[in-house]
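Sharing a chain and its predicted structure for anyone who wants a worked example. Both blocks are below, sequence first, tokens second.
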Amino acid sequence: MSTETEPRWPILVISLQDAAERRAAVSKQLDALGLPFEFRDAIDGRSGLPAAYESQVDRPGTEAQFGRQMSDGEYACALSHLAAYREIVAENLPGAIILEDDAILGDAFSLFVKEKGYDQAPLVQLDHQNARVRRIGATSIKLESCELWPLHQNAFLTTGYALSQNAASFILDHALPLRSPADWPCDLGPLGPYCTEPRIVDHPVAEQAGSTLGAKRNTLVERQKRSLRYGRKYLESRYWKKKWMKMITRRLS
């Protein structure tokens, strides 16, 4: 556990180099909260995944494991997060708070940072979607800024989260070749991840955000949905596993 004399974990904001408007918006929020931060240039997959990164992805394996193809933008986003993890390990940082440049921040986030809430678990999701915790046996950790709940399984979104060096190393060891998006490239279960209740980082409504991942991802998602229509989903083992999971857990987001 950290002590009051130890420095806070750094805040790293992942952002495309030319995303001037987004950078200005997140900078304004963090400056207003009095929190130092640094930008990390994201890998740009808008015009295709740069050839230098192709060896780090497994396109056939993606469809088999993830259930659909991923766009180059999704691969680039995930690889950008992995680059931040490599920095944590290479620089021997105790951990870091990772934000995406469309994060919406407020006082609860600031308090979480200042009280070092990240010290409570190897990985804490500050923004999340479809986060589920066990109905029986789950014990929370109460902080001033929020309450932390142990996740039953991976939850969506990487808008904002905190991870330790050990967590960064674990994900790097299990992520490549890449077959899943940034949220998440492997099963986080062995880490014992937590999420905040309520969410202390927010994100824009998708229709208003102008996501840099673009329409390609939406097309791939819709294609996957169509393939599961007309009763075919009932033949998939993943469908029944999901039904059982909903019975034994409750949803936080």
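Comments welcome. The CA atoms of residues 68 and 222 lie 10 Å apart.
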